[in-house]
Specification:
The chain is an alpha+beta fold. It contains five helices and five strands. It is globular.
Length: 150
């Protein structure tokens, strides 16, 4: 369910009330914990938290590098957490911490899906958002895309 909304306000306005409330709550957690330098925007049909192009212009698709995102999909809502999925150890720690909350864990390759706000451990989401300052995230991306030394 990709949105054609041009602004975050339009995106939120087109959501059913229950989803709008959930997305707004998660958005507040993200904004409270988002390290300095990232920007909030509409991109790829969802609310994104990204590295500005003037900071890191060398992306493969010439679009800002996504750090996190928030979306309402057809059958669920999702928080995309690129940072924790860049490193196996970080992903494993996140999954263990999530499962320890006894909340419903439903994850994809780079996202956590939730059907209702109660499924999401908001404190853990906030910690995950706060985990990578902009410079560290960009350096990790560069390392991941650099040619491997043999």
């Amino acid at each position: 369910m990709r949105s054609e909304a041009a602004t975050i306000e339009e995106y939120l306005a087109e959501l059913p009330e229950d989803r709008r409330e959930a997305i707004q709550t998660v958005r507040e957690v993200i904004l409270e914990n988002l390290p300095e330098g990232y920007e909030e925007a509409m991109n790829w049909g969802m609310i994104t938290y990204q590295v500005p192009l003037d900071v890191y212009p060398d992306t493969y698709n010439k679009k800002p590098l996504m750090y996190a995102a928030l979306a309402s999909q057809k059958n669920h809502m999702a928080v995309y957490l690129t940072g924790i999925y860049m490193e196996e150890g970080a992903r494993e720690e996140f999954e263990a911490a999530y499962r320890a909350t006894d909340k419903r864990y439903d994850a994809g390759k780079s996202c956590v899906r939730f059907r209702k706000l109660d499924d999401l451990p908001l404190d853990l989401i906030g910690e995950s958002i706060a985990a990578y300052d902009l410079e560290t995230f960009v350096e990790r991306v560069k390392e991941a895309h650099s040619p491997r030394k043999k």
